[in-house]
Structures are given as structure tokens and as C-alpha cells.
Write a structure and sequence with these properties.
The complex is a heterodimer. Chain A is mostly helical. Chain A is built from 17 helices and 2 strands. Chain A has a domain at 53-327: Orthogonal Bundle (ABC transporter involved in vitamin B12 uptake, BtuC), CATH 1.10.3470. Chain B is mainly alpha-helical. Chain B has helices spanning 6-33, 38-50, 52-77, 85-100, 110-139, 143-165, 202-218, 220-230, 232-237, 242-259, 262-269, 280-290, 295-312, 323-371, and strands spanning 166-168, 175-177, 189-191, 194-198. In chain B, helix 1 runs antiparallel to helix 14 and helix 12 (280-290) crosses helix 13. The chains are: A mainly alpha, B mainly alpha.
Chain lengths: 419, 372
């Protein structure tokens, strides 16, 4: 169990693809087109919650922990270390935020969450980098260890605290929230008109600009910061080279072990921030609070093709389905139609790209979801929670040839040993 | 693989024992740091562990853990990570419970019902694992990622299906499938001094262990599995179809995973409900690692895990959070894999030195001969 799984069935993406980067305005156009489709579905189904500012705000809150976990995965995997211990590191972060948060406020909670997450990352780094343990096994061990440790500490320190309990911390005050002044009421009026596209844009903007937690803003800055650090600095180049070709990097004088340590500890820091955000935004630590968000973060990163922008899109999408669960069953039901349309669009795109089989699979699935929408009155909320995972499986199955993970990802690197 | 000498035996045992000692030390430090007495904690666990009831429960837990570990180990032997045993086992237990609890089945003779239930569980487990297998061979999707996703999907789908199949459980707000009637149950074994019984299906676990040993060491299929695990390219070169092996071993792993819930379902709970334990698949990974995928080693590890889990239940009463045992288990897993790696490195160096010495020995007389 020293290698990294079988390579059977893996088709590597062609190394040199003609550079075909879309300009920013094209992305904007795609987003607008997507919004138009959502708006159309809203008008057809009458599910106003699809784009209400309440939904968008809730989606943003739900997306931040997922995005932070995803960033954690991104940092580690870009340096070639797979980190499925993110979930455990997030749990440590939630406890840290609970412990410091109820005593000294949300900012102290954030700092403690970061410290504990970093400790989890350090553990993973020691196991995988120094001792060369298989990355998956170390991650599983951390996922076993961390919830136990968090619950142990919770019983130890929260049981007798005022307002606390065996499995929960005393309440934490929320981080300050800000709004862009003057926008709220105008957008609110527009949103209530329920016009096609215009009201949806208003709902989107209002959700993104009104009553936003400072923690959310920090998360957005971290996302942009990661993009800049990893792709625009020598440090980032060296770090990514450890994930692509560690032997080559070492031969050029990069201390691969050191960079892997930085990356994996950083990974723990981001997971810790995600955990701290969860605890602070729901104003206490609770046992089992993460609910698999570390894994959804990993899924968001894969969905985003190991890039910060894609990761943010994935986190937004998954946060959106998460927020949807709490909304009315109308909105949830409308999601089926959205999924059907998305799959049919994919089918057309793939058909034009001459991927006949994938196109056919996507078309069949799209028709099936469409049929499900028209044949049923509502979607059971139990199933909505599985949406991020189903979407990720679909993306992996249908678009695997477009995904490209770091080349030496998950491979154990020992200095001086031939590969 | 290598000959049995005192040295190899010692090296083989050094890693797991060293890990256990290290984990115990870490936990002692944690206990002292949080103001508890390690001696009292151990005392409380031993007192609890001696009770017949705890022993029976430990054995029953170990049965589940062992099946889960074998399911994981089949994949491990060929470098395939079936992280999804957890989801496979839950889907299988739920649907098997729905099958065995259906009203029409009451008139079917008992043995057929039981065999049918177990078959359903194995088929469902294999099918759920089969999704990951197909994604792997057809699209090259990492089985780690797809089984993690399938675990989560199983959780939500399980909740949904349970609501469809469920009848209210009397006297609680738990919901479960319709209880299996008398004929479809498997009676347990009595244990002196305890009211709870040992699962009848403990025999199934032993059987699975024997079959696992036989298949791996005495069949061509087992050889192909191990060959693929050690070197994929060498296996391909000697004519092994790795795709077929991935498919078969994943289905087999899923089938065994389907068995994990059976002892509890047929032996004690008789219905699948919300409180069926989650995380058994991950315990299976831990047990398989500690037991080095060896049928007997995993049995010992499963027993250790069962005893630790059940003896811990008395700790909360004694004022020590029982999660100290979860911490200990996590530390054991992490330190045992580190220890295996250290032992492996030591062994490689030792063998290199030995070879070097032997080569040196043969050269010395020759040199002396020249000098004379």
C-alpha cells in the first residue's frame, strides 16, 4: 500500500491543447445566460425562492465553509499531497472557534480555529511528507482522530461552562456584518416586482451586498489571494512544481519537503478557517457540525478542476443547493428542471465537440430529470442534500477528460529515490 | 514472502506493538494534561471489560468490524481504496431489511428467507460498489473520490428510502423498517453470566475470513490480485486484465461490505433504523491496517477495537470523556502506519548492509590469496 492506486482506465488529458482562453466578457456572458435560464425556470415554475435575496444570502453563507475546505484541498494537492483529512481538520477548527469564541469573541475564535486546523495539517504533513505514509490512510486516520478529540475536549471544557453542554459550546457572538449603504431598499423594490431577469439580478445583488459577514469578505480575499500567490509568485510556482514534478523541482534547488510542509499546513489553516466560520456563523460549536463539508469542499475543488475560480463556482453551486434545502419545496422541485436543462445543454455542447457517447448519456439523463420534474409534484428534501455529490460524480463521469489534476498528486516523494 | 526467522517475527510484531504502546503513552499524557488519572481510567476500563456483558458486546462489535475489514482488505491487496464500505453496508442493510421484513415473505421457509436476505445484502453492496468500479474502469475516475461521494449519497438516499419503507417504532421517535418475524431471524449463542447473546452470524465472519485466506493464497484470482497490487505494469505484462480485476475485486469487496450489517440485523435489531451505526467502513480501514490485511491479524485487531469501544462505555460514568478511546484508536492507526514504514526502511537498510557484508566476506579471502 505504498503506491497511489491503480492507473487503469485513466486517460491523461492531451499535454498540449491549443490555448483557447475565453476573455473575461465571455465568462460574464455565460454567467448572464445561466442567470437568464434560472430566471426563466423561476417564471415558469413560480418558485420565487430560486433567486430571492434570502436564498442568495443563505447560499453565500453556506458556500464559504465549502470554499475554504476546497482551498485547503487545493493548496495540498497543488503541492502533490492528497488531503482527505480536511473534514477532520474542519472539526478541529469548529472546536477551536467554540473554545476561544465564547470567551473572547469571534476574532479570537477564528484565530484558534486556524491554530487547531494548522495542527491537523502539521500532523498530516509529518505523516505523509516525513514518514512517507500513504496520503489516503493518513487522511482517514485524521478523520477518525479529530472528531474524537473535539468531542473529548468539548466534554472537558464545555460541560460546566454557562450555556454549554457535553456536545456544544456556549454561544459565540457573531462577527460584524456590513452592507453597501443605499442599495438595500432600491433592490428590494425591484426584487418584489418579479420581472424576468431584472428581479433576479436585483435579488442576486441584494443577497451579495446586504448584511454580509466580515468573515465572508475575508474568505473572498483568501480565494483571490490564493490565486495570486499560487499563480503569480515564485513561491507559488515552486509549490506547484512540487505537485507536478517533484524530482525536477528538487534538481532545480527547490526544497520539496519544505514546500510540501508549507502547503499541507496551509491546507489545515484553510480547513480550520472553514470550521471556525461554521461555528461562528451558527453561533456555537456543536458535535457533528461539519456534516461532511470537508468532503464537499474536496468535491468543489475537483469540480473546479484544481483551480481557484472553478473551485469558487463549485462551492457557490453546492452552497446554493445547500441553501435550497431550507427553502420551500417549490424551489427544490424547480431544481430538477434546472438540472435537466443543464444536462441537455451539456449534451448539445458535447455533441458539437463530437463526444457522441457522453452526449447521449447526458441527453438521456437530462430527459430523465425533465420527466421526473413533470411527473412529480415535489422533490423529497432528503434527496436534495445529495445534489453536490451527484453533480460531482456526473462531472467526473462526463467531463473527466477535461479535468487535469497535478501530475504527481498523491504520489509519495522521497528525496533521492528514483520514481 | 520471506522466511520466518526470529528477526523477521520480531520486526513484524514491533510495528503494531510499538504503535499500541505509543498510543497508550499519548493518551496518558492527554489524560494527565486534562486532570484525569490514567491509572483510574485503565482500572475503570478493565473492570468494565471483565463483565460478561461487555465481552459479549465486544465480540459482537468485532464481528461487524471484521467483516468490514475484510471488505476493505480485498481492495487494499490490489491497491484499490474502497473508502465506500460505509455506504455499501448501509444501503445493503437497509434494502435487505426491507426485503426480509416485507409482509409477503412471512410464509417462506426460514432458511430460504435468511439466505435470500443475505443474498440481497451482498448484491446491493456489490451494486453500490459497482458504480465506483464502472466509473474507474470506463472513465478512470479515482475510486477514492467516487466512493466518498457514494457514501454521502447513500446517507441521503438511505434517509429517503427509510421513510418509504418505515413503520414507527413503538415508544420512541425512531423509525425503522418492519421488524423481521421469527422465521427470518438467526438465534444467537448464550454466554454464561450475560443476558445478551453472541451473534449467530459470528460463524459467517469466521467463514468469510477462511474464504478470504483461501482465495488470496490458494487461487489464481488471489495471485492476480496480489500481483496487481505489487506492480500493475508487471501484472499487465504477465497477461492480467487489470480492468477486469478492478471490476471483480470491487464487486467482491462491495459484496462483503453488504454482509457487515447482517449480524446485527438478523441477530439482534431485526429491523433497520436510523440508529444503525455509521462509520463502520472507516473502522474497517483501521482494523485492516492494524491487522496488515492478514486474516488472523485483522481478527485480533477487530477484537481489540471491539473491546476498546465497549469498555469505553463505562468511562463517562467514571468522569472521563469516553472519546479518549477514539483518540487512542486514531493515534494507533496513524502510528501503526508510520511504524510499518519505519520498519520497512530499517529492513531495507539491514538487508543492504547484509548483502554488502556478504560480498565483502567473499572478497577478503580472495584478496588474501593474492597476497600470499
Amino acid at each position: 500500500m505504498t503506491a497511489t492506486g491503480l492507473s487503469v482506465g485513466v486517460e491523461t488529458a492531451p499535454a498540449v491543447r491549443p490555448a483557447r482562453r475565453l476573455a473575461a466578457r465571455w465568462y460574464l456572458l455565460i454567467v448572464l445566460a445561466g442567470l437568464a435560464v434560472v430566471s426563466l425556470v423561476r417564471v415558469i415554475t413560480g418558485a420565487e425562492d430560486l433567486t430571492s435575496s434570502g436564498t442568495v444570502g443563505a447560499a453565500l453563507t453556506a458556500a464559504v465553509p465549502i470554499a475554504m475546505a476546497g482551498l485547503g484541498g487545493l493548496w495540498a494537492e497543488r503541492a502533490g499531497v492528497v488531503n482527505i483529512g480536511l473534514e477532520g481538520m474542519m472539526v478541529l477548527g469548529t472546536w477551536g472557534a467554540g473554545f476561544a469564541g465564547y470567551q473572547w469573541g469571534p476574532w479570537a475564535g477564528l484565530v484558534f480555529g486556524v491554530v487547531l486546523g494548522a495542527l491537523g495539517g502539521l500532523l498530516h504533513a509529518i505523516a505523509t511528507v516525513t514518514f512517507g505514509v500513504d496520503h489516503i490512510i493518513s487522511g482517514v486516520a485524521i478523520n477518525l482522530l479529530a472528531p474524537g478529540a473535539a468531542l473529548f475536549l468539548s466534554k472537558q471544557y464545555f460541560s460546566d461552562a454557562p450555556g454549554g453542554g457535553q456536545k456544544q459550546s456556549p454561544p459565540i457572538t457573531d462577527a460584524p456584518r456590513v452592507s453597501i449603504p443605499g442599495l438595500s431598499s432600491a433592490l428590494d423594490t425591484l426584487e418584489r416586482k418579479h420581472w424576468f431577469l431584472v428581479s433576479d439580478l436585483a435579488g442576486l445583488l441584494r443577497g451579495l451586498t446586504v448584511n454580509v459577514s466580515l468573515l465572508t469578505i475575508i474568505a473572498v480575499l483568501l480565494l483571490v489571494g490564493t490565486l495570486l500567490v499560487l499563480w503569480r509568485t515564485p513561491f507559488g510556482l515552486r509549490l506547484r512544481s512540487c505537485g507536478e514534478a517533484p524530482v525536477a523541482a528538487e534538481s532545480l534547488g527547490v526544497n520539496v519537503y519544505k514546500y510540501k510542509y508549507y502547503a499541507v499546513i496551509g491546507s489545515g489553516v484553510f480547513a480550520g478557517i472553514g470550521g471556525a466560520f461554521l461555528a461562528i456563523s451558527s453561533s456555537q460549536f456543536r458535535d457533528g457540525q461539519t456534516g461532511g463539508r470537508g468532503f464537499i469542499g474536496l468535491a468543489a475543488m475537483i469540480f473546479g478542476n484544481w483551480r481557484p475560480g472553478g473551485l469558487a463556482a463549485g462551492a457557490g453551486l453546492f452552497g446554493y443547493t445547500d441553501a435550497m434545502q431550507l427553502r420551500g419545496s417549490d424551489a427544490v422541485h424547480a431544481l430538477l428542471l434546472l438540472l435537466a436543462i443543464a444536462l441537455l445543454v451539456l449534451a448539445v455542447v458535447q455533441f458539437l465537440a463530437r463526444h457522441r457517447v457522453i452526449s447521449a448519456v447526458a441527453a438521456v439523463l437530462g430527459v430523465a430529470f425533465g420527466w421526473w420534474y413533470f411527473a412529480s409534484d415535489q422533490l423529497p428534501p432528503e434527496l436534495v442534500g445529495s445534489a453536490p455529490y451527484v453533480v460531482t460524480l456526473l462531472v467526473l463521469a462526463l467531463a473527466a477528460q477535461r479535468l487535469r489534476m497535478p501530475k504527481a498528486d498523491g504520489k509519495i516523494y522521497r528525496r533521492g529515490e528514483a520514481v | 514472502m520471506s522466511r520466518l526467522t526470529p528477526r523477521t517475527v520480531l520486526l513484524g510484531l514491533a510495528a503494531p506493538l510499538g504503535a499500541l504502546v505509543f498510543a497508550a503513552l499519548v493518551c496518558a499524557v492527554i489524560l494527565i494534561a486534562t486532570g484525569h488519572s490514567p491509572a483510574d481510567t485503565v482500572q475503570a476500563m478493565i473492570t468494565s471489560g471483565k463483565r460478561p456483558r461487555t465481552l459479549v458486546n465486544s465480540l459482537n462489535s468485532a464481528t461487524n468490524y471484521y467483516l468490514s475489514a475484510v471488505a476493505v482488505a480485498i481492495g487494499f491487496r490490489m491497491n484499490l481504496f474502497n473508502i465506500g464500505v460505509d455506504g455499501q453496508y448501509r444501503m445493503a442493510a437497509l434494502l435487505a431489511a426491507g426485503f426480509a421484513g416485507a409482509t409477503w415473505i412471512d410464509s417462506v421457509p426460514g432458511p430460504i428467507r435468511i439466505i435470500g436476505t443475505i443474498m440481497v445484502a451482498m448484491i446491493v453492496g456489490a451494486a453500490w460498489a459497482g458504480i465506483a468500479a464502472i466509473l474507474k474502469v470506463a472513465r478512470g475516475v479515482s475510486e477514492v473520490i467516487s466512493t466518498i461521494m457514494l457514501n454521502a449519497i447513500a446517507t441521503y438516499l438511505g434517509q429517503y428510502l427509510l421513510l418509504k419503507l418505515a413503520v414507527p417504532v413503538a415508544g420512541s421517535n425512531n423509525i425503522g423498517t418492519r421488524p423481521i418475524t421469527e422465521g427470518g431471524q438467526i438465534p444467537g449463542f448464550d454466554w454464561p453470566g450475560s443476558t445478551s447473546k453472541v451473534y449467530g452470524l459470528v460463524i459467517l465472519a469466521v467463514l468469510v475470513g477462511v474464504v478470504y485466506w483461501f482465495v488470496l493464497t490458494r487461487t489464481r484470482f488471489g495471485f492476480d490480485i496480489k500481483a496487481t497490487g505489487m506492480s500493475e505494469s508487471a501484472a499487465v505484462a504477465s497477461g492480467v486484465s487489470v480492468k477486469r480485476m478492478v471490476l471483480y475485486s470491487m464487486l467482491l469487496s462491495g459484496g462483503i461490505a453488504g454482509l457487515v450489517g447482517m449480524p446485527q440485523l438478523l441477530g439482534s435489531s431485526h429491523s433497520y433504523s436510523l440508529d444503525f451505526p455509521a462509520g463502520l467502513g472507516f473502522i474497517g480501514i483501521a482494523v485492516a491496517l492494524l491487522g496488515r490485511n492478514h486474516p488472523a491479524g485483522m481478527a485480533l485487531a477487530a477484537l481489540l477495537w471491539g473491546v476498546l469501544d465497549n469498555a469505553a462505555n463505562s468511562l463517562d460514568v467514571a468522569g472521563v470523556p469516553k472519546e479518549i478511546v477514539a483518540i487512542m484508536q486514531g493515534v494507533i492507526v496513524l502510528s501503526v502506519v508510520v511504524a510499518y514504514e519505519l520498519v520497512r526502511r530499517y529492513r531495507v537498510r539491514y538487508e543492504q548492509q547484509k548483502v554488502g557484508r556478504e560480498l565483502g566476506m567473499t572478497r577478503v579471502p580472495a584478496a588474501a590469496g593474492v597476497g600470499a
